[in-house]
């Protein structure tokens, strides 16, 4: 019998329970996937602690790659033996699962299962942030928080390839060196420097065109202060907690700032959007525009340990759970 991680009540990593899970045959429109690699993302933490509420008990995890083991009635787009990847389907922390065929994307031969699981959700996020939320053009200057993290490690080289100057913030000097190696033009260590003052210094007082902020509470006010007039704050996460409410008047006047709170799943809501976003991601991976990540791995049954490492910011880049 396959095993899975189940959450019965919200709380700390210790609430992740490793349990045997019965699995019926795939129903109409479904396939059974044997996972070979499972992506760990901060949204998993949000579900575990109850920040993003889901009915309990629940499986957890939204990203996985593996091999199709069985096909349900009416499925023609996917065949047994296909290598596939997906995101946005709760319950990825499992050795095996059933999933709707129309939410799966076939993997090209050049992309391994481990790479796919480590990069798919983060890579689709990078794609919609850089190409559709605030389309980056040559000459733009970008401020990117958590530049050495999973999404940041993809955003940096992709933004550079689109012609941007990238200013990244990180928590340690070691992560600053990593961010620079990934292409950041400037790396700011938050524990040593005031990032707003440093951004103004780097940009000769102008500010940046766009801030990509996944940190939230600790950085959002400063992110707004780092923008050029009519600049855009893209708030797409809150790893440090929910930021304080913003007074609309404070972003008006001569600043006239834009703020958006985009969600990946609003940008891949149709099959066409999912296919286009995935194709763009696979293209930059195959070309080497975005380097193939080398994720840190944990056994699936040790998901709690992986969550602790992620929340303590002891990880860089991507983390993958291996069944």
UniProtKB/TrEMBL annotation:
Q: Where is the signal peptide?
A: none
User: Which spans of this chain does the record mark as coiled coil?
Assistant: none
Under the heading Pfam families, the entry gives: ADH_N, ADH_zinc_N
InterPro entries in the cross-refs: ADH-like_C, ADH-like_N, ER, GroES-like_sf, NAD(P)-bd_dom_sf, QOR-like
Under Gene3D superfamilies, the record lists:
Medium-chain alcohol dehydrogenases, catalytic domain, NAD(P)-binding Rossmann-like Domain
User: Which of UniProt's keywords are assigned here?
Assistant: NADP, Oxidoreductase
- All copies of the Enoyl reductase (ER) domain together span 11-321
Identify this protein by name.
Quinone oxidoreductase
Lineage of the species this protein comes from: Bacteria, Pseudomonadati, Myxococcota, Myxococcia, Myxococcales
């Amino acid at each position: 019998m396959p095993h899975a991680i189940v959450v019965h009540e919200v709380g700390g990593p210790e609430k992740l329970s490793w349990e045997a899970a019965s699995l019926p045959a795939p129903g109409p429109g479904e396939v059974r996937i044997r996972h070979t690699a499972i992506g760990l993302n901060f949204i998993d933490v949000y579900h575990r602690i109850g920040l993003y509420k889901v009915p309990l008990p629940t499986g957890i995890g939204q990203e996985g790659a593996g091999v199709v083991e069985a096909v349900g009635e009416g499925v023609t787009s996917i065949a047994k033996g296909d290598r596939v990847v997906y995101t946005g389907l709760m319950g990825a922390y499992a050795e095996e699962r059933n999933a709707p065929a129309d939410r799966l994307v076939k993997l090209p031969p050049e992309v391994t299962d481990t790479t796919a699981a480590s990069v798919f959700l983060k890579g689709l996020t990078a794609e919609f942030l850089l190409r559709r939320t605030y389309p980056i053009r040559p000459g733009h200057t970008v401020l990117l928080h958590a530049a050495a993290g999973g999404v940041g490690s993809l955003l940096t080289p992709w933004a550079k390839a689109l012609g941007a100057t990238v200013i990244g913030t990180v928590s340690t000097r070691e992560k600053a060196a990593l961010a620079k190696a990934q292409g950041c033009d400037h790396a700011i260590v938050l524990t040593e420097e005031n990032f707003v003052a440093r951004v103004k210094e780097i940009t000769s007082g102008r500010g940046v065109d766009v801030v990509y902020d996944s940190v939230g509470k600790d950085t959002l006010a400063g992110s707004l202060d780092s923008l050029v007039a009519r600049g855009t704050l893209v708030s797409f996460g809150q790893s440090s907690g929910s930021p304080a409410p913003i007074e609309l008047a404070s972003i008006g006047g001569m600043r006239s700032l834009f703020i958006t709170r985009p969600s990946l799943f609003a940008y891949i809501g149709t099959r066409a959007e999912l296919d286009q976003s995935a194709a763009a991601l696979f293209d930059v991976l195959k070309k080497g525009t975005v380097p193939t990540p080398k994720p840190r791995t944990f056994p699936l049954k040790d998901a709690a340990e992986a969550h602790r490492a992620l929340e303590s910011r002891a990880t860089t880049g991507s983390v993958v759970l291996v069944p």
